[in-house]
Write a structure and sequence with these properties.
By secondary structure, the chain is α/β, with parallel strands linked by helices. It has helices at about 15-30, 50-60, 80-90, 105-115, 135-140, 185-195, 235-240, 260-270, 275-280, 285-310, 335-345, 375-385; strands at about 35, 100-105, 125-130, 145-150, 165-170, 200-205, 230-235, 245-250, 315-320, 325-330, 350, 350-355, 365-370. Helix 5 (about 135-140) links the parallel strand 3 and strand 4 (about 145-150). The structure holds pyridoxal-5'-phosphate.
């Protein structure tokens, strides 16, 4: 046996461990002083009742002989795929076939697994900073990475790669910067991919947080995108499904990848649980939609509060309008970890150091609007007094 030595090229995944270690050291040194957590990138609000009931009902069906089910189709139940097409794409004028929508257990696994469809010598363009899964999956597969720096000077909008990129991971609304692209900006990427024979893997995990009217929700709103883009979506952050697990990936036939992805899923994936798919279906009911919209609006309200208060205090703060994340520049020329330590030690506030998302994140921290509203209010007051 020979190990995959590409794993040796991965950055040590120390970010969340290091955050945990520093928080624990603080708590040990200051017993009885709780920490206000503003770093968490995970949803916190409970699921709407109609979604819980859908899961209960689905579980009940599995306990009855006449409604019991075994494996579902690897690509998901038709009733969910049809509902997705009708609600998420048709109103935007995007026509998709059932066979182009693949239900999965969430975006994380598909984002990595999709890379199996491409030759190992393909070059991958990845935003810096970004959600770490794109780089990790590419490095595990031994692919060279082209980093696309996103900083305040370019408005956190990446420039087109100078070298030819074969695979391009785009994530908008962006985690961690909260940036979105306009139709014109996204059209530039589609044009690039068409001219260079590249494929765009478009991560739309935060699509539901878009509040501005002129921002594309799907890459297929751009003409010609169906030939060059795969879109990955998730119910995790839109409906609070981080533990339920359900998402979907659109692989249009025009990409030439649909049959390959179907083959891959049939071989390596035996389908998303019936209970999760029923829960996902319930998000499209009137009551389900209203419930998840109320949660999204709550998070967006917290995001607005964080961004506004930071800006009032004189911080350079970005995002938080079309995303649940606020990207905040450290004061006094501090690096990410120095700001993190000041927030922890002076204010008992936990954030995520920006450098953990890539080198261009140095000098920033990410605040999350998934945090408790009262914790955010208290944290911001302490920052005003103490930093
Ligand atoms: N994409 C982005 C940008 C994320 O931030 C996350 C999770 O935080 C995911 C994908 C993965 O989400 P899930 O696997 O829960 O669908």
């Amino acid at each position: 046996m020979k190990k995959n030595t590409n794993y040796q090229n991965l950055e040590e995944n120390y970010l969340f461990k290091e955050i945990g270690d520093r928080a624990n050291a603080f708590l040990a040194a200051h017993p009885g002083q709780p920490i206000l957590r503003m770093g968490v990138g995970d949803v916190t609000r409970p699921l709407p009742a109609v979604i819980v009931q859908a899961m209960q009902q689905a579980a009940g069906e599995l306990g009855q002989a006449d409604t019991f089910r075994g494996y579902c189709l690897e690509e998901g139940y038709d009733w969910l795929r049809q509902c997705i097409i009708e609600h998420d794409f048709a109103p935007k004028g995007i026509q998709l076939e059932l066979s182009e929508v693949f239900i999965g257990e969430g975006a994380g696994s598909d984002l990595g697994n999709l890379s199996e469809l491409f030759s190992s010598d393909n070059r991958v363009a990845i935003l810096d900073p970004s959600y770490p899964a794109y780089a990790d999956a590419s490095i595990m597969a031994g692919r060279p990475v082209i980093w696309l720096p996103c900083h305040a000077e370019n408005g956190f909008v990446p420039e087109l790669p100078k070298q030819k990129a074969d695979i391009i991971y785009l994530c908008f609304p962006n985690n961690p910067t909260g940036t979105v692209l306009t139709h014109a900006q996204l059209a530039e990427w589609v044009k690039y991919a068409r001219a260079n024979g590249s494929i765009i893997i478009f991560d739309a995990a935060y699509e539901a947080y878009i509040t501005q009217p002129d921002i594309p929700h799907s890459i297929y709103e751009i003409e010609g995108a169906k030939e060059v883009a795969v879109e990955v979506r998730s119910f995790s952050k839109s409906a609070g499904f981080t533990s339920v697990r359900c998402g979907y990936t659109v692989v249009p036939k025009e990409t030439g990848l649909q049959a390959m992805w179907l083959r891959r899923q049939c071989t390596k994936y035996n389908g998303t649980s019936y209970i999760s798919q029923r829960a996902a279906l319930a998000t499209y009911t009137q009551e389900g939609h209203a419930g998840i919209r109320a949660n999204l609006d709550f998070y967006l309200g917290t995001a607005h509060l964080i961004r506004q208060r930071l800006q009032e205090m004189g911080y350079e703060a970005y995002g938080g309008v079309n995303a649940p994340y606020i990207w905040c520049h450290a004061p006094h020329g501090w690096d990410s970890w120095t700001f993190f330590d000041h927030l922890l030690n002076e204010c008992r506030v936990l954030c995520t150091p920006g450098v953990g998302f890539g080198q261009s994140g140095e000098g920033y921290v990410r605040f999350s609007a998934f945090s408790k509203r009262e914790d955010c209010e208290e944290a911001l007051s302490r920052m005003k007094e103490r930093i």
